[in-house]
Amino acid sequence: MTTDLSASFKAYDVRGLVGETITAESVRAVGAAFVDVLGLAGKRVLVGGDMRPSSPEFAAAFTEGAVARGAQVTQLGLISTDMLYFASGQLQAPGVVFTASHNPAEYNGMKMAKAGAVPLSADTGLEDIRDAAQAYLEAGHIPAVETTGSTDTSELLADYSEYLRSLVDLSGIRPLKVAVDAANGMAGMTTPAVLGDAVLQALPLEIIPLYFELDGTFPNHPANPLESENLRDLQKAVVEHGADIGLAFDGDADRCFVIDERGEPVSPSAVTALVARREIARAKAAGEDTPVIIHNLITSRAVPELVEREGGRAVETRVGHSFIKAVMAQEQAVFGGEHSAHYYFRDFFNADTGMLAAMHVLAALGEQQLGLHELAAEYNPYFASGEINSKVEDKDAAVARVLEAFADRDVTIGRMDGVTVSAADGSWWFNLRPSNTEPFLRFNGEAHTQEQMAAMRDEVLTLVRQG
């Protein structure tokens, strides 16, 4: 049976079950379609993959399809997702990395970029690639062009590491003990190169490695630090080793979560605010009047408040990396952060990189004497619910119940992404956002006190779930 690509093509990337919704045959067709749709015959295409067992086979299949249609493929070998963005930005070439990010071992997928690390999404070519690839699958073959392409190889790790170190100088900070949980993902390769001495000179960092062995079957725990149970080993290691900080990466190492010296998570909103302050100061020193910082609408209100205090301009966006990257480019923003621990940098081609965000936190910590818990407290003044999912069949009716209950209160209502209800006095807000792929309503809320937050959360969730 021919693979139905609509099962694996999502809004921003491709992700599916290996051997079922994503196969070598379908990947070969996608490689050919990638070249056709983007007009890449005779041009360079970058291809790499993560440590999942199926990634080498899929990278080879994509290369075959792309070469058949005339592309000059540069094979990058084992890479993290942000290494693809680095190569795409530096070489001004489009590319693909085979990864399923934080998903379990039985999954794989593709993250694609146009030249300059510009994201590909359903609205900017991904659907066209899907349709062209589906046509090749239906036809049963991929015809070769008159002048087929070729392949070569390139080693990225040293250049990637040097580039990141050129953006954040850690050589003069106080010595820090850093526990890092790579979850058997690509951070097991990038951490020793960027923060250790595997490629470059040693920094004043003592690295305590957890699960650095590259293993796409994830034998220790899932590579998804968004789930609190996957942080427990790191939290324990930080306390046991007396580490100054803990860093947890997802499978493809484009996201980074931070743990303080007490073993407590530092919220991604606090990390966003901390990095924003540093990037605003650096941009101002370079002559920018009002540097722009991007944040999505469910990031803590502490972020835009800090940005304004520091003399920057905060711009709110919808949730999702394609939205943020588009606004980053449009606004020429210096930095952007999301609640999901994706961090975007103008100096990194408007792309997200967990490692560069981690380096900023290490620099901020190492340039002064406070512990991370105390340092981060300034950036985390409010009480957040975290994201809470409710399984709801009729999402519209659930949202309507909530809006009716709040209709006679002194609130404002925004509809950028789902609905956001905010108290007129600024003391609390919440957002209800429907999942595009599952029967879930996602709740995020924040308030000035724990009691306010809990009361608002419980009231809204009761209304949502009563249907």
Secondary structure blueprint with pairings:
Layout: E1 14-17, H1 24-38, E2 44-49, H2 55-68, E3 72-78, H3 81-91, E4 95-98, E5 107-114, E6 118-119, H4 126-139, E7 150-153, H5 157-167, E8 176-181, H6 187-194, E9 205-210, H7 232-241, E10 245-249, E11 256-259, E12 265-266, H8 268-285, E13 292-296, H9 302-309, E14 313-317, H10 321-331, E15 335-337, E16 343-345, E17 351-352, H11 354-366, H12 372-377, E18 383-384, E19 388-391, H13 395-405, E20 411-414, E21 419-423, E22 428-434, E23 440-447, H14 450-465
Helix pairs in contact: 1-2, 1-4, 8-9, 8-11, 13-14
Detailed description of the structure:
The strands form four sheets. Strands 1, 2, 3, 4, 5, 6 and 7 form a seven-stranded mixed β-sheet that branches. Strands 18, 19, 20, 21, 22 and 23 form a six-stranded antiparallel β-sheet that branches. Strands 9-8-10-11-12 form a five-stranded mixed β-sheet, with helices on both faces. It has 14 helices and 23 strands. Helix 1 crosses helix 4 (126-139). By secondary structure, the protein is α/β, with parallel strands linked by helices. The model has no long low-confidence stretch (mean pLDDT 96). The longest helix is centred in the middle third of the chain and has 18 residues, at 268-285. It has helices at 24-38, 55-68, 81-91, 126-139, 157-167, 187-194, 232-241, 268-285, 302-309, 321-331, 354-366, 372-377, 395-405, 450-465, and strands at 14-17, 44-49, 72-78, 95-98, 107-114, 118-119, 150-153, 176-181, 205-210, 245-249, 256-259, 265-266, 292-296, 313-317, 335-337, 343-345, 351-352, 383-384, 388-391, 411-414, 419-423, 428-434, 440-447. Strand 4 (95-98) and strand 5 (107-114) form a beta hairpin.
